[in-house]
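Notebook B, p. 112. Complex prediction, attempt 2.
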Amino acid sequence: MSVSLQLAQTLLAILLAPLLMGWVNQCRAWLQGRSAPPITQPYRTLRKLFHKDAVIAHNASPLFRFAPYMIFACMALAAGIVPTIANDLPFSPAADVIALVGVFALARVFLALAAMDIGTSFGSLGARREMLVSFLAEPALLMVFFTASLISQSTELPHIVETLAHKDFAIYPSLAFAAVAFWMITVAENARIPVDNPTTHLELTMIHEAMILEYSARHLALIEWAVALKLFTYSTLGIALFLPWGIAPHGDVAALPLALAAMVAKLALGGALLSFMEAISAKVRLFRAPEFLGTAFMLAVLGMLIHFLLEV
Amino acid sequence: MPVAFLADSILDLAWGVVLFWLALGGASLLLHGSPRLLTRLVFPLGALGALGIAGVGVAGLILPASAMVLPIGLPDLPFHLRLDALSAFFMVLLGGAAFGITVYATGYFRSMAAGPLALLAMWYHLFLAGMVTVLLADDAYAFMVAWEVMALSSYFLVTTDHKIPEIRRAGFLYLLIAHVGAVSLLLAFGVLQGGEGDYTFNTMRLAELTPFWSSAVFLLALFGFGAKAGLVPLHVWLPEAHPAAPSPVSALMSGVMLKTAIYGLLRATFDLLNVQIGWWGTLALALGLITALYGVIFAAVQSDMKRLLAWSSIENIGVILAAFGLTLIFHTDGKGALAALTLTALLYHALNHAFFKGLLFVGTGSVLHATGERRMGHLGGLMRAMPWTAWLTLIGALAIAGLPPLNGFVSEWLLLQAFLFTPGLTQPYLDMVVPVAAASVALAAALAAYVMVKFYGVVFLGQPRDPALRHAHDAGWPERLGMLWLAAGCVLLGLLPTQVIGWLEPVVLMLTGQTLPGAGSWLLLAPVSTERASYAPLIFLAVVVVVLLLTYLWVRRVYHGRVRRSDPWDCGYPEGDARMQDSAEGFGQPIRQIFEVFMRVERETPDPFDRKPHYRGDSRDKLWLLIYQPIDDLTAWLSKQAGRLQHGRIQWYLIYSFATLIFLLVFAAR
Amino acid sequence: MEIFWLLGIPLTGGVFLALWGCRRNAPEINALFSLLTLAVAAWLTVRIVAEGPMMVGNGWFFIDSFNVFLVTLTAFVAFTTALFSRPYMRIEEEHGRLNATRLRLYHSSYQIFIGAMLLALTTNNMGILWVAMEAATLATVLLVSLYRTPASLEAAWKYFILCGVGIALALFGTILLYFAAEKILGSGGTALLWTHLNGVKTELEPTVLSLAFVFLLVGYGTKVGLAPLHSWLPDAHAEGPTPVSAVLSGLLLNVALYAVMRSKVLVDGALGTEMAGNLMMGFGLLSVVLAAFLIKRQTDVKRMFAYSSIEHMGLITFAFGMGGAVANFAALLHMTMHSLTKSAIFFAVGHATQKAGSQLMSDIRGLIKTNPTIGWGMMLGTVAILGVPPFGVFASEFLIITTAMHEHPWATPFLLLALGVAFASIFGKVQPMVFGETELPRLPYQPALTPVFVHLALVLMLGLFIPPYLADWYRQAAALLGG
Amino acid sequence: MTLTYHLQIVNLLAALLLLISFAMLSQRRVVGLVALFAWQGAALALSTAIIAWSTGQHHLYYSAALTLALKVIAMPWYFYHLVKRLNVNRAVEPMINIPTTMLIGIVLVIFAFNLALPISEMSGTVTRSTLGIAIACVLLAFLMMITRTKAIPQVIGFLSMENGLFFAATSATYGMPLVVELGVALDVLVAVFVLGIFIFQIRETFDSLDLKNLEKLKDK
């Protein structure tokens, strides 16, 4: 039962991820006063890409062709760990939040290495910037998780959700800090404004796009999909940590439809919020990015300190 | 009593291997005429010895401790040897890493000239013997002798290529700091000894010291062992000496020798000192974190690949030391289980580091061999030319970057888990310290990933920055075997954490008197309880592989696998060539920009009209200026003053004697 | 009877070489006499170890484990040095720095010097001890000035005047000793016999003895080379022929320290206080620290190692000053190790300087490239003298430092500092001499390196294993010194 | 009471010794120095002989004779010829000027007496009080060696120090055992001989006996 639930949930995540991406793009188009693409636009793009012939540079190494699959697999694994609608994930003991951070890091490292593989000046530039962003974002994310795990005395996401959602309600000021930090991290990690701009190809500013410049066709498709999946996972992660109410508790099948509805609502809301923030803020210079993330890092650590101060 | 007999016999075996290595050393000196014999016979035999040591270690983890007394040493103090769980574990580490490295060495040294090779073989085996004796020694004298033999032989290994002045300087700095550290260890033993020239560890264990004196011992030991481990600010020799040595030796030094310092620290703190004090832990934790961050930051800005690895060794030692500090804190706070957890993390990380750092160093060795180039700015694109080295090194790079499901992640995971338990501590100020500490550990880990992407990407990926690199030859078979062994170690240590932790249990029990509650199964690593935290690398790997394969098949089945080759997109700028890739300096530039306060940066930037534009950015260690330079100046000044006494006029010399006489007559003769 | 052989052989050797020293094979004769001396010394040692202390010549000579071990050491190093000087002096002659008559002078005063030291060691009479020390000084003065260069003359002059004055003060100390002793033992010859004095040491007048010890310490201390009385030592070592530097460093300093220790035993007995010990510790520490800092700026290799001798004598004096079984044992061990190692180093240095034709360290480069044996001899010797295991010097330093940490922690920072500085200075200077590139040609002849490696092998052996009888012997000696 | 009578003579001679030491301190010319040295030796020999006669310590006669032979006749004669042959009998300018030296000398004498006081108390010999003078002589000779910048005066200072020691030996303890005395005498003889050789060598190497030439060996 729970195994099937697990599989269903993971598949659901993988399938719905582009939808969320589409929704965010749509909202942003609206907010920018442009005529919006249909919400299913990402699916079309993926299909188109899959049909194309892959064009690969002469000196590309096997690593280059292997990386997209690896990245996709990592994101799928991540999606499998995070409770989206139901809370009993038989697979989650295999990897707790720290491992989750590890998974993201693994995917990132492979992407960066693949970017450096061709040896164009853009690829290595993108890889460098990506690692620059991540070396601050990753510990910050870890600190956010630590705050949550200190509250729930566990690093297992299901238990965290259990504690936060289904134990008696309590207000955790530390979580407020963590939430803000998490938001900033999400923005950075998913290559959104103000850290990066997913739609630009200006060499001065781009980070993520610079890395995948050499990719085409199915490889590009997998990467795009993985990106969408990453955004999805981060969103569900944020939901699970900061507004977990509605996620179906352990073994409660009846609650599933409601949970699904709640989840869709929350995602829609989160996506809209994300695009709204993007619309009202401008991209910062690259060397402001460390300051931005440093702030996030500080906030996360502060959250932890606050937990030690007020809540122990 | 068969068990005791078995224990004694494995101790004999260990000592036998030491003698065997010594014999090999002597033999290699005799064989200086025939390099073939040296590489094809002596080194393989040495590798066998390493394997034997590893076996002894494994057996020693199971069997009870056993001791023996040798007929050599000082009159009242023959060499005492003892094999207990702690030394057994470090022997596993040593044997395991040394085996792979020595196998590698059999191939690596084939191109070397006969004479130097013989000397090198001798010092190499002396080095191994010294390290094992350090682990076995059970009295201060034997320990110090082995300790210094280790230092001396490694010094001669470092200065193998002594024609180069930098290498001589590196060796000198190394031996000097090692010697000063050794003297401070002597002082520590001087405090611990019972007097009447009884220097056996047994009497030291019984010594009842006042808090002041035991703190003195701890600080002296921390200084002495820290000097060997590369603890900031005693680290200056490490980035000089490790790159200077031939790569297998660098691998041994970084992978194994640094761990003997950790061993000594554990031995002195938890075994010899019968009481521990809380603030020691805080101190060690702070120093460890500083070391970790300092090391990784400097690793990020290096442009010489071996130097980069050396700095990353400093970082790892820092992490280990932080774990050591945390262990002390928990231990003195009466949190036995948590002390056990951190200690496990410590030992695990030491073991991991031995493997992946050894692997990375020998990997750079092969690159060095194939290209004769250490500056990353002149390498690149080697993945095509030398796939074996590249792929095996990739494993090491991912492992040291702390990525699941490899071994580096497991120890980091354990350590981070430990931080989540601190709310139970009694000293509240620690609660304040811990989040920061955890954050810095996480930061160091993330930066390590940065460093490794830089290292691997610049050296092995991209286009060759020098056309000659296209024809670089891959490593030979012995090298491949050695690297395979080490890589396999990284993978297995990553995939079978529960089993490894099971092996570590006797050590943890011996030092902290506690073991991990250890819920979970052979598949699931759950150090405390499954609700609390768990991690199953095998499942992890399985899922990744399955998803990966499914995706692959699905893409192939539903769509197609067509591929067209073409030139990379040059953004409409046809003159782009390999030199336009990110150089090592370029890749490190953001880190340098952020952390410039710690460095003394020397830049050479070309002016716009340069015919051959050349850029050089060099980040030097500021501590050298802040600490070592003043010391040097001070001693120079003092010696200048002392020199004035010796200015040649016999009258003055007579006045010295006269004054001394009068002084003594006035003050002493009463 | 051995004793008369022991003293007779070198003295007759001296006379013989003075008369027929011009002949070609004088170096061999020199070595032969030294060998005979060594044989007798060994024979004597065997007897002492077997039968314990003995008096010879109705009390004029007294031999116990303390001095017999120094006798053997002296005879041994004297022999190896003679072996080394065989080719060395020949080359000096070929280089035209010496001629046959000077060589005759050299050989005969070498033998007389050895004889004087043996006399100083074996005599039971504090007065004769003084006479012998003075004789040794005179013999070595001639040896130091052998080259007749301005520098060597200056060195010899300073050596003579400073040590002469020092020795004179020592004589005054001896007089005071006699003055105190005759009231108990009555005037006449017996009142200066150490054994008698030792018998009644508790009754001796404390004030007089403390005064006497000050004079003796300053006097003999000058010859030991304790700072600040050491000024003559670097000059004499640097300017004399290398074999002489070897025996000066390796032997004469020991003998002088032996004299100090003999007096210390008496003074301790009389005073029953730590006064003597504290004085020695003070001098020792001062010497160690001062020497360490003086080494740093040296440019002349022999001068540098001369300062290192000061440092080590300081360490030994410090250890003797601490007293107690372990410290005395360590000090005696360190005496042996220092003699063997330092003379070995001087042998290697001698050949290195001959090769480079200069004593400036900046002129000596890349020894192991052209003469690996010399290079390794020098490198290993240096490493040994710097107290790196497994060489024996470490064994004694280990005991000294740990004991100091246990008994007198206040002293250890100075030791740590001094050892660190000395290590940095010496090793930093020796490394480029041994390693690196060079244009210098090979030595045209076969260097006499057997002594070097014999010494180093012994030092290595003693660092890892001290034969039981040797250990007992040290223990007895340490006990005699009030351990 | 004869003893006191002898005692007075010995004390007188002791005072004379001290006086001569001071004279040597102030003496500029080498020949005069040699003469003073001879006189000092004479006083020493005389006092030794008197002590020998008054106390019946016969071996003291030998040492008196030895002193006479060596320090009154042989050595001064030798030095005299040396000075003549090397023609170094110029006024020697000491390192510290004479009056200062004198003052220091007086301080030293007082110090020496204080030093000797407790010891003389317990001395059994008749001539106890002379010990202080002996110490004073030694220290003054030391001072002289320090102040003189020429070779020969320094040597003479060295020898007059030996005189002081001898005087101490005879006056305080009626002389050391004969063997020692002989040994010491022999050493002194050889020493002087060697010094003579040196002085010649220094002379022919630096064609001057000025010790300023002997200041090359130093730490830079």
